[in-house]
């Protein structure tokens, strides 16, 4: 069979191990709270599933645009922000082109670049788990078509500061597409961190991506959004799989925006939990990056898989990245005590 060799060599996206019924699922940075009744009601009212959804998600774009102070054409909706990332990469990069990003970061980036037929240029993160933006700027060549910045970075949780990001944007050619992936923005409490919403309209080459999957708890429905200059978004609209954002996802996202205050109270609980967890781990002696997201990172190097196994055996499903580290989502309150018990054991056993 004549299939593309680079695709055959490409890893298939996997979520890690399935969690047993009694286990805490802390492997996908999901929201541990159940769906809001208002969101469930909106979905139930939208059950005309014999009809196609609105292909442009006009109502949801309008709602978001009104909040952002943009036009509806400066907003795009995708089947999760991962679909939007793919659309932007396909719109800008093809064979012979380069896509640069800091690494380690969201594991889908390299695969999406390969799918586009382009070449990944990964630039190592700083020792503190943050992006090295001057090094990322240095990695830009005449062949670079897209640069991805992830803040807070998955899996380290470290943010880019507004100052670092502005300095970076000043050095990047103004016709080079920059994607600012802010999937975890609502969990940020660091005042110095970049906030893409404050940069809207400032750069002709900047697109900001966000999602309803994390803070808004709609991971299972697949809906994300991006905002940026209309011409760039139009190119991304042309690379979309038509009709991939379901009507259920669109109404659930609108209902979630209406119920935002209640959802953000939950986000606040998760950030408090995060801080308590990081403090307790540091008190045990762990070196933990300053996570501003709903997960934390244990840099375990060669001990990664063994450590993940220890957590798994204790009913704690985490996400190991072999040879690098274990990412643990901030989930149920009750998961923190067993997590800390196993973390202490692992630390004691480390050479
Ligand atoms: N960006 C980052 C950094 C992520 O971690 C994720 C989800 N793991 C996404 C984008 C995509 O999220 P979704 O497709 O659910 O919106």
From TrEMBL:
Keywords: Aminotransferase, Pyridoxal phosphate, Transferase. SUPFAM superfamilies: PLP-dependent transferases. Pfam families: Aminotran_1_2. InterPro entries: Aminotrans_II_pyridoxalP_BS, Aminotransferase_I/II_large, ArAT, HisP_aminotrans, HistidinolP_aminotransfase, PyrdxlP-dep_Trfase, PyrdxlP-dep_Trfase_major, PyrdxlP-dep_Trfase_small. Its EC number is 2.6.1.57. It is an enzyme of class 2 (transferase). The modification N6-(pyridoxal phosphate)lysine is found at residue 214. Belongs to the class-II pyridoxal-phosphate-dependent aminotransferase family. This is Aromatic amino acid aminotransferase.
